[in-house]
Amino acid sequence: MSQCLDCHELDLDAILEQVRPLLGKGAVADYIPALAKVSGNKLGMAICDIHGNIYSAGDANEAFSIQSISKVLNLTLAFNIYGEALWEKVGREPSGQAFNSLIQLELEKGIPRNPFINAGAIKVCDLLTTRLSAPKQRLKELLWDLCGTKSISSNRIVAKSEREFSDRNAAMAHLMKSFNNFENDVQQVLKVYFHACAVEMSCIELAKAFSFLANQGKSAITQSQVVSSRQSKQLNALLATCGLYDQAGDFAYRVGLPGKSGVGGGIVAIVPGECSVCVWSPELNHFGNSLAGSEALSIFTSELGRSIF
Ligand code: GLN
Question: Where is substrate annotated to bind (predicted)?
């Protein structure tokens, strides 16, 4: 297996300085009021290579709301439980639509396009609720297992704020229910979903947690085999095609890696066989993806000379 021989030569501080002029040009997510309070000036980056070496810069130690990055983790749990049968309930095609769009859900009879748009992630939470007695606890245990620490938790204030402004996500769940593609109580499932979105982690913790996707399914930190090597390949394919919603093509063009964003301003990306990387800058572009974060990743892959394409 190749090593991330070049990671230690990268000047991460210099990458962050190159994108710092973008701060002030995006907007912090404010449709979840608790997230609107985060300072737009934050900027951090961390890499975890497949040997567990960590490289970091800026605000890489500060925990932030992981939001939709959590969709990968719940999907990992569901994929392990359901295997290929999962795809009868959720699609795996890029949506080309905003992450919270309802349009395709109506047109495609309640089957969400993929597990990374909100409808798909809520459906994954519905499936977890059917099979697990404590899905929120199970996610926490997965995170502890991936990071080798029990210090990670979900922010109750953010989760509550999401619940108070949940009309759109509730509409998706009810629409799926009207098409017979929803198994549990909508409010119960939304609690599982919001709990996951409100998990707080730092760039370093996220880079560590996602190392299994760079390392054929095995955590570079704890050595636990989280998914099979085949499933790791499949999850990376979903990240590459669907992880940045209707900006997935542009992200492939500029960054060229499997990636997953969240409206908290984090983006995790994977260099298969080498490392996982996380950037955080809370100001978003109009796709809901971190503006400076995606630019930092573009510089990162150009300097590293890596892409999956
Ligand atoms: N919690 C957010 C929501 O449900 C997650 C969206 C995101 O990060 N893209 O809208």
Answer: 68, 118, 162, 169, 193, 245, 263
Here the tokens at position 196 are 């996951």
Averaged over successive runs of 10 residues, the pLDDT of the chain (309 residues) comes to 67 97 96 92 97 97 98 98 97 96 96 98 98 97 93 96 96 98 98 98 98 98 96 98 97 98 98 98 97 98 94
- Is the Cβ–Cβ distance between 204 and 60 less than 8 Å? yes
Distances (CA, A) of 140 to 39, 153, 168, 171, 222: 26, 7, 26, 27, 15
Task: Report the distance separating Cα 190 and Cα 67, nearest Å.
Answer: 13
Q: Which CATH architecture has domain 70-197?
A: 3-Layer(aba) Sandwich (3.40)
Query: Which residue among 28, 56, 65, 68 is the active-site one?
Result: 68
Work out which ligand 1 atom sits closest to the CA atom of 166: 4
Smallest Cα–Cα separation from 274: which of 43, 49, 122, 20?
A: 49
Does CATH number 3.90.1480.10 belong to domain 7-68+199-304? no
| Residue of 99, 43, 113 whose CA lies nearest to 286 | 99
pTM of the predicted structure, to 2 decimals: 0.97
**70-197 shares the fold of 7-68+199-304:** yes
What is the distance in A from the centroid of ligand 1 to the CA of 9? Answer: 35
Prediction ipTM score: 0.97
Residue 178 and residue 186 in contact, taking contact as beta carbons nearer than 8 Å: no
Q: Which one, of 118, 161, 164, lies nearest residue 262 by Cα?
A: 118
